[in-house]
Amino acid sequence: METPALRRSMLALALTAPLLVAPAGQAFAQPPSVQWTSTPYSYDVQKPHNLPTSARYKFEGGVHTMWVYDYDAPHTPGSPTDPRTELRFHQEYTSGQRAWQGEIFIPSGVSGPTVVQILRENRPAGTRATDIMLNVANINGGTLRKDSNQVIATGIYNKWFTIRIEHTAVAGGRGTTRTYYNGSLKLTHADEGPANRYFKNGVYHHGSGRAEARFRNITYWRQ
């Protein structure tokens, strides 16, 4: 878990360099599957390429706050992707069991961003770029859903909630993801097949206006 000294160090790094490193977290709640072990993780802060990190990201009081506007530039010059401010985990894998867990806060009115995803690289041609994307929509007091149709939770605005995504990846085949909301299993589905993948969290914005999300107590797990 992030300590006060580490928070100050990470904030200084966030303002001067893209690489941030976090130590192994201690479990703040019993994970849904008891054999998981929290492990060290590291990440880059991805943000509009023409802005400093501090223009779209801050780390204060143990909270990562990320925001982006619909008119912002993409992460790299010339990219056709939507604007983003995200933590891109360095821990990549093709098989085995991994999990991302964290508490998330979404201000009211935010609509359009992906706040957690598993991104797939070196994937077979014609296959999807993500195994899962959790998106926020401005309906029913704030709705969190996989893609645009599978509802994880409603009434999410202006409160902290815990998301845990467990992924069992199979080399050369299809694995399984499980999504938990406040400790309750909400969705189980097959992943998109073989790939090199990694977790991301933040705001990858597909909507209009300003998108913001806050994160705390992020842990990374292996089994």
Number of helices: 1
What percentage of the residues does DSSP assign to strands (E)?
over 45%
H/E element order: HEEEEEEEEEEEEEEEE
Largest sheet: 8 strands, antiparallel
How large is the radius of gyration? Answer: 16 Å
Structural class of the secondary structure composition?
Answer: mainly beta
Q: Residue share in helices?
A: under 10%
From the N-terminal CA to the C-terminal CA, the straight-line distance is 18 Å
Shape: globular
Low-confidence stretches: 1-28
For the secondary structure, the number of strands is: 16
The largest sheet has its strands arranged as 1-3-6-15-8-9-10-11
Brief description of this entry?
With 223 residues, the protein is mainly β. Helix content is 6%, strand content 50%. The chain has 1 helix and 16 strands.
What does this structure look like?
A hairpin with a 3-residue loop joins strand 10 and strand 11. This protein is mainly beta and 223 residues long. The strands form two sheets. An eight-stranded antiparallel beta sheet has the order 1-3-6-15-8-9-10-11. Strands 2, 4, 5, 7, 12, 13, 14 and 16 form an eight-stranded antiparallel beta sheet that branches. The chain is 6% helix and 50% strand. It has one helix and 16 strands. Keywords: Signal. Pfam families: Alginate_lyase2. This is Alginate lyase 2 domain-containing protein. InterPro entries: Alginate_lyase_2. It comes from Lentzea roselyniae.
